Each structure stands twice: as C-alpha cells, then as structure tokens.
Amino acid sequence: MTIVLETQNLEKQFGGLRVTRDLSLKIEQGARHALIGPNGAGKTTVINQLTGVLKPNSGRILLEGQDITDLPVHKRVLRGLSRTFQINQLYPDLTPLETIGLAVSERLGHGGDWWRRMGTRSDVNGEIADLLARFHLLDVMNEQTVTLPYGKQRLLEIAVAIAAKPRVLLLDEPAAGVPESERHDILAVVGALPRDVTVLLIEHDMDLVFSFADRISVLVSGALLTEGPPEQVARDPQVKAVYLGEEAVNV
Amino acid sequence: MSASSDVGFHAQRHARWHYGEVAFWLIVLACGFAFPTRYLIMTDILRLALFAMSLDLILGYAGIVSLGHAAFFGVGAYAAGLLALHGIVNEPVLALIVAGLAAMVLGFATSFLVIRGVDLTRLMVTLGIALLLEALAERFSNITGGTDGLQGIEMQPIFGVIPFDMFGKAGFFYSLAVLFLLFLFARRVVHSPFGLSLRAIKNNPLRAAAIGIPVNRRLIAIYTLAAFYAGVAGALFTQTTAIASLDVFAFERSADLMLVLVIGGTGYLYGGLVGAVIFRMLQEVFSTITPQYWQFWIGLVLVVIVLVGRQRLHRWVLYVPNLVIRQIAGRKAVVAVPESDA
Questions:
Q1: ipTM of the complex
Q2: A interface mutation test: which of B13, B207, B218 has the most A CBs within 10 A?
Q3: Do the record's keywords include Magnesium (chain B) (predicted)?
Q4: N or C end of chain A: smaller count of CB under 10 Å?
Q5: Nearest CA in chain B to A50
Q6: pTM attached to this predicted model
C-alpha cells in the first residue's frame, strides 16, 4: 500500500511542555485511520501541525511523498489536505451557499477572480448544488450561518472540507456536541465518504471509532502508545489502562 | 429550474440591482439640478462619500481597521496639486488617475505593515503612517509649500473641453461621474469570488486559509485598491478646490471617516455614501444652531446610533416609504431594505 500522509519524528513544544514527542505516523491510501487518546494527549496539536496552523519544532511532514513541513495552510489545502475543526470554524455572516461556493471557487482557481460575478460559472454552481444536496443544506442555503441549528452547522463544517476535494481529510471530532437526534445525519455523511478519500479521524466517541476505523493510533502525552487494527488496540492492556484512568502508563 | 441554475440565481441575489439603488442614484443626480446654489457643499459630500467608500472596502469587507486613511487622501491631493501646478499632467481626468496611482503605490508598500498583527496594531500602524506623511509634507516645504500649502493651482478644462466654473457646477458633475464610475467598479468587485473571499477573511481568517484562500495576498490586493480610491478622493479635493494644504493628512480627517461609516454602516457600499450625506448635514445643522458646540451633538448622535443599533434605525426610517410603496405597487414591492435584510 502507498503511504499518502506521513510524519517523521515530529516534535512540538510550548515553552517547556512537549506536546508532540517524536511522533512518526504513516497513513495509507484510502485508510480509515483513527487517532485516539485521552484529553490533553495532543491530538488537535498534531492536526494543527499537519495542516500548517502550527509549525513543528523539528521533524517532517510528507504528503504523497512531498515535504510540506514549511508550506502555508492554504497551499496544503490546494494540494489535497483538508480538515474540519473540533469547534465549528464557519463564517457567521455568510450563507451555506456562499460558504461552499467560495471553497469550490478557490479549488478551481477562480477565487482571485475579481470581475466575474459569483454564481455565473455553471461548473461551480453544479458542484455547489451537489454538495448542498448531499449535506442536507438545500433548504437553508440562503440563511445566515449563525442562525442555523448546530447540527446543520456541523454538516456545513464537513461540507466545506469536502468542497476542497481532499485526497486526505482530517476530521477533528466530527460528531462533537451534536444532539442525538441530528447525530445520524453526520455519521451517515462520514460513512458515505468515497474510498479514494483517505480519512484521519480524531474522536472521543469509542463507538464511532470502532465502527468506522480500520486502523487506530493511540496517542498519550504527545507520544504514540500503540498502533494497529481495532481488535488489537481494543485488547491492548496499556490502552485499557489509559482509558480506565488508572496509573499513567510509562512511555 | 434545475438545482444548479437555482444555485446560480441565488448566488447572484446581491449582485442584481434593486429599485432602491436606482432610485438612490437618480435622487443624487436630481440634486445637481435642484440645488444650483449648493454645489460646493454637495461636491464636498461626494468627495467624502468616495473617501468613505474606500475605507468601507477595507473595513466593511476585509475587516481592516484604519485610523490613517488620510495618508492616501493626502498623497492623492498633493499629487494632483503638483501635477497641475507644474503642468506635468494638465488634463484633470488623467491627472486624477495618476494621483490615484501614486496613492496606490503607497498603499501597496504599506500594506505589508498593515496585514501583520491584529486590530490594535493596525490602528497604530495606519495612524503612524499618516502622521509620518504629514510631518514629511511639512519638512519638505520646497515641494509641498509647507504650512502654506500649494497655492496658485489653475485647473485646465476637463478633457480639454469643460472648464471648472466658479459656482462649482462642473466640479460637482465631474465628482459625481467619478464617484459613480468607481462605485460601479467597487460593486462589481465585491460581488465577485474575490469580494466574497474578503468577507470570509473578515468573518474567520482561520477557516478562510483552511479552504485555500491566500489570506495575505487578498488583503494586500484590497488595501492597495482602497488606497487608489482614497487617492482619487484626495485628488478630487485639490482639483475642485484648487488648494492642497497639510490638513489633507490630518488625523481628524481619518477619524471623521470612521464616524461617517459608523453612521452609514459598513459592508454594503452605500454606507459611506449615506453616511457622508448625513454626517455633513448634521455638521451643517448643528453648527448653525450652536457654532461652538456642534461636536457635542455629533457625539450624542453617534452614541445613540451605537446604542440603539443601526439596523433598527434603518428599519424605522424605511418604514413609511415602504408602507407607501406597498400601497401603490402591491405587497411584495419594497423601496429599500435595511442593510441586515438586504
């Protein structure tokens, strides 16, 4: 199998605190890879380094074999690395139509177009319509995002990431905070992602992790504790110890 | 209607002309014929409107705050003055463009300082640049005329045909034409994907970058464009008043501009235009009533606007006109919509 996303000896420190310790991850093409770990294990810090929001102190990040460690955020997106945020990062004043339209325009290279009006390109419009339909947002496409119910905002958050047509998608707790009644929509959408999109999932919800992932990495205090297929990780006594909140495991 | 063309239709919702907008510009044009004795103040309002539209482009769309927008106004003003005084570019329209470009160069150069940092840094940097230029203009008095300003500017006829008259009639229609053309251009730009991406950056720069928007490049672009607009406003000032003095760089000019946008509202282009009209009228009214303390009343109005909320005020103001129009043209018709619903 080809490795599509890889970190080599990643290190990140905030002052004296080592939040990522010598982390080497390999994510295979088409994988449903989950990154789990207790609160404060540094999962989101890893995502922030992968996407370029944070710079690692040392180590490298490779996307499809190319070193992207020093690329700014927006260039990684154009290379096919897209993410959702644990806490929604949307545009409160914009509508779902505008939000998705913008993401599609940027990907197709029309984002800097300052003369042609929004909505006059049929290829962009077609994609927007598809995404709105797929994410159950057609009925609210003209409402301001800030007025949408939380579940819809969560769907929009994922739709925006998908609009970038990523080859690797980083999902940071996609179902976080979504009420039970709207949860099903989110899980269905995540489950229906095409197999050619590689997914790295960060999640607290173990039901979701074990039903979705075909490979799991466990992060504790910024370092990799163990990695393997779900059955193996589930049996691992070290992992059980971490999740049952017993003694901190020596790593 | 297919979903795709439906999307296209709704995406262009704001880009289509509303009746209210057409009415607005017709009224402005009509003022030019209705008040032939008030050309000077009306021209002053048009200049202020253009200047405020420039600030709206960066503040209302891209979220860049500035307390030194007069820097570009001043550069445009002096550039136009020097071009005319030394006979370098005699034709006013061409000189206007050259002056705008001069401000644009400054805007591009300083944009790199402005895009760094957050709001407070930006306020200080923009303020600093304007003060710096004011001091430079005073220091190099051999070029700028120092505290006396540029004097003896004689404007040539527009396109070599239309002379500036002493009543300011030509100046008014000239300014109106410039304002309208630049408005059309700005309107086009803000409804493009580029314009939308600015609003996205203002809303959430983190997410904007995460969908592939080159945030800094976009901010530099709009800041540079806004500098051009401000430079043109400054050049209009010199061309229609035939003077350029140090106060074109003054802090009060930048601060007044903020007030204009607070009154008119940001992010829909008309804020600067409406705000300029109201601001100058308030100034006129208050300074007639109390020549010494008019600033007190302006201050009071601002406090009320901020407390009550502009959206609510707009709805109240538009209540009667909308009621009348609905009586005549049916339930669905609207003259104008408050900015929040537009």
A1: 0.90
A2: B207
A3: no
A4: N
A5: B210
A6: 0.90
